[in-house]
Amino acid sequence: MVSPKRDTTDPLFHTRWIHMFEEDGGAGDVYRPESDDVPLSRRPRGRLTLSPDGTARVTSGGADDRPIDANAEWTQEGDELVVRTAGEREGADHVLRVTVETPTRLLVRRSRD
What we know:
The protein is mainly beta. It has one domain (11-111): Beta Barrel (Lipocalin), CATH 2.40.128. It is 0% helix and 47% strand. It is built from no helices and eight strands. An eight-stranded antiparallel barrel has the order 1-2-8-7-6-5-4-3. The radius of gyration is 14 Å and the shape is globular. 16% of the residues are buried. The model has no long low-confidence stretch (mean pLDDT 85).
């Protein structure tokens, strides 16, 4: 794992990011801080929490809509943070490519490596 290159005081690490699927577009999924005005939804919202030490937690809705947490690690690759999770189910590993667009908006693209 490449050492994280971000300042530990960066607000990126002191924020729980919530998937705002209403704002998603062709470029990717939009995440905003939990402190923003997040509308109620019957659909479970994904969450992303990043730590300065290179670890992360990715939360998604399970089959019964209860949240499922996955431990992850992130690295800096150019202008992106690349978050790699390893799921317990076959084929559940995935990669999130995170771009910080503004202090209150992340753009997240999902891929498999």
